Amino acid sequence: MAMTLAFDVYGTLFDTRSIIGALAREGIDGPADLAHLWRQKQLEFAFRRGLMRMYMPFDACIRDALKFSCYTRGLDLDDDRVEALCEQYRRLDKYEDVDAALKALAASGYRLVVLSNGTPDDLAILLDHGGIRHYFEQILSVDAVKSYKPNPEVYELLLRETGSRPSETWMISGNSFDFIGALNHDLNAAYIRRGPDFDSDFWEMTPTLTLDQLTELINLLPNR
Questions:
Q1: Distance (Å, rounded) from C-alpha 160 to C-alpha 142?
Q2: Quick check: helix, strand or coil at residue 192?
Q3: Whole-number mean pLDDT of the chain?
Q4: Residue of 146, 129, 123, 66 lying closest to 94 (CA atoms)
Q5: Side-chain half-sphere exposure of 135, counting CA atoms within 13 A
Q6: Is 8 considered catalytic here?
């Protein structure tokens, strides 16, 4: 069986910071700071829900995180503006290295799948928007287990749905919590440093590979 490469989406294939432009077009002051807080709160809300087993789909976490972020900044956005901004999370920009990396990895015989916190509908829209959906054999969402990364059930979903053994499975992610979760479930993990992230330096787990670009994978992964 070919080696399975599971790709995270938000912050790995698509740049969540590209939402800054949409915030700026809304006339919001400090759009970069708001985008950062919005992203951090999305994850925090998802982690809380996962721990409490009070699952709601990730699009709800995105929406609630935006409302909270606006509230803390004294911004009064009506529901239509909130929905319009949330819609832009389905239109994020790809990182520049994505197409070349996926094309090369697929041509080399690796099995490519998606494993994401996003909802199935949002993932389909975003991957189609980026023109990369055709590279993936499967699109796996945490919605199937009603929890969030880094819950071990999410990585077990990956193994179950792909039929891949842990030693032959790689999690490819730009999020430190994701590579830690994968390693905790005995998977291999490639960490793509998409920006400064000091959190990963304070854990006892080290990624199998740490890269600056997705395209580096093709020369560093073990033979399929």
A1: 13
A2: strand
A3: 94
A4: 129
A5: 26
A6: yes
What is the per-residue pLDDT for 201?
72
What does 31-74 look like in DSSP terms, one character per residue?
HHHHHHHHHHHHHHHHHHHHHHT----HHHHHHHHHHHHHHHTT
Q: Which residues pair with 173 in a beta bridge?
A: 191
Q: In whole angstroms, give the CA distance from residue 182 to residue 149.
A: 9
- Which residue numbers in the chain have pLDDT < 70? 1, 196-198, 200, 224
Residue 200, pLDDT score? 67
Percent of the chain at pLDDT above 70? 97
Alpha-carbon distance 15 to 192, whole Å? 12
- 218 Cβ partners below 8 Å, 6+ apart? 101, 104, 105, 108
CB 49 within 8 A of CB 55: yes
Residue 192 bridge partners (DSSP): 211
Q: Report the predicted TM-score, pTM, of the whole model to 2 decimal places.
A: 0.95
Structure tokens at 134: 């055709």
Rg (CA), the chain: 17
Model pLDDT, residue 197: 65
How many Å from the N-terminal Cα to the C-terminal Cα in the chain? 8
